[in-house]
Amino acid sequence: MAQWTMIQAITNALDLELGSDERVLVFGEDVGHNGGVFRATDGLQNKYGKDRVFDTPLAESGIAGLANGLATQGFRPVAEIQFFGFVFEAFDQIASQAARMRYRSNGAYSCPIVYRAPFGGGVRTPEMHADSLEGLFVQSPGLKVVIPSNPYDAKGMLISAIRDDDPVLFLEHMKLYRSMRQEVPEESYTVPLGQAVVAREGKDITIVTYGAMVHTALKAADEWAKAKGVQAEVIDLRTVSPIDLDTIVTSIKKTHRAIVLQEAQRSAGAGAEIVAQIAEHAIFYLEAPVLRVSPPDTVYPFGLIEDEWLPSQNQVIRGLEKVMSL
Amino acid sequence: MQILSPEGKVVNSDLLPKLSDDALRELMHRMVFTRIWDQRAVRLTRQGKLGFYAPVAGQEGSMIGSEYATNKEDFIVPGYRDVPQCVWHGWPLHQAFLYSRGHQLGGQMPKDVHVMMPQIIIGAQIVQTPGIALAFKLKGEKRVAITYTGDGGTSQGDFYEGMNFAGALHLPAVFIVQNNQFAISVPVELQTAAKTLAQKATAAGIPGVQVDGMDVLAMYVATKQAVDRARNGDGPSMIEAITFRYGPHTMSGDDPTRYRTKEVESEWEQRDPLIRFRTYLEGRQLWTKEDEDRVVEEAKDAVNDALKKADEAPKMTIPDLIDSMFKELPSDLVRQREEFSAQEGM
User: Do B134 and A96 touch (CB under 8 A)?
Assistant: First the structure.
């Protein structure tokens, strides 16, 4: 076992899949010789050659289109969008093309593509780098949307994503790239897509969350337990589409209360869908309404006010207390 | 580039392709067949027996000539009007009709038919083409990806990106622009100040050639050169075919008399690719009225057969649609499948 950052775990997953499956190709802007702007693909071109790991012209629609064409001919492209804020350039090729390929050809063609993209706040990026746009793709039938919160899951889920026979959007939170190390097995393993995990057990209230907010939720729950002796259960969704409803409902049957915590704006992200699913499937177990804790519906903030804008531990605790008092 | 004048005279004998008499007759056969099928399709659309249909009459030269220059293994990435190329490349006609009606089985290409279903998002096919071409290059297959768009489509970002990617990665791809002068009602002068569309290839650093798209031989020769070049590893190229559609943009309510004069239409009718090639073949005693009549009957029969076959396709169900979304259904769709199956009593 090695102590790895999330970026190391991601590089290792790509390395293992490139090594075990000749159909896997890795490409994007600066992913080749340079090894990626975050070094996620460091050393891979040297090891596997320019036919397997290569740079592309600077054009996201072209990159996603390239992936589509390759995928229909039997390759397994892992395409990188340098920052997820640039995904609008590639929106048609991902949501209207790859996501529909199997359906519109009734299975004659498919798109086993992984789109890797960094996103997420707290690291003072310039405009259109940190935005949480996963909600746009949660609403696009035919895609899976994955957001790991730690190195172990990142590696196992990336391997699962590459082996998946349909398109997967794999979103990597920039703040988590190097903020934590974790024991990660050096050999290949998978973490299933579409399965949430209980990151902290508790009996009084459920926090459903994903991405960097998992860590905010964990800290808030610990602090709150120490101060008040109330135990929050934290669910790390890991996959935001499809949502693992069973894990959420099982938790709510136990706690009877819930908040949904996300880094995306109130009406963006996956939060509203989670609340709706809870309303449909678990309303009779609830003692109080399900509250969303999230940033306001503004454009992503300027760097100097980022910390106030992103949901804080205190905001999470206020949310927990509000739902507990109802 | 032109080989036959509108009067059917050879004006560029140096370029005349070395096609056998049978091959020349086959080109005429396909053009006549396609014209008849187009006329039938327009009528069938009005009768409600077909759905979405983009007429092709006038463009037979550019469509048939270019497709005829490809091998069966080459891959066609069509726009929504490019149904004839796909059908001559192997897409069964009844499936093209199912596609027109909006049936899922329409786009399910048979394994040995190297065609993508027609693309509705103008330009999307052009950024997918480099991916298909790169797959051929990586596998060491001597195959070419060939894609089509119209004059309006050249204004899209994807048009530029697709050509530029193919150039930068040195891929076996051919980009064909069928300039029929109008994008629905908007004339090509409102798309760009560029004097030709072929010169847009310069921006990608690839060769571009302007061809008389009403001249089936010129289109065949230009495409053959581009396809051979790609197959030999010499990279992509672009062809602008100057052509015209006699009918409306689509059968979905477009009225070309709102934007085209009778004079313009009759001027282009003088350049009809069928008249031109027929005159040429008749001059060489390769085509007779009997040949023509036989193809007309054959086309009518083929359309009737295809309609019958399309009618026999099973009705789609909501569970069918759900099942075709993923290789393995995610949990939420499993639940929805149960819900909608119960509603249908299935």
Answer: no
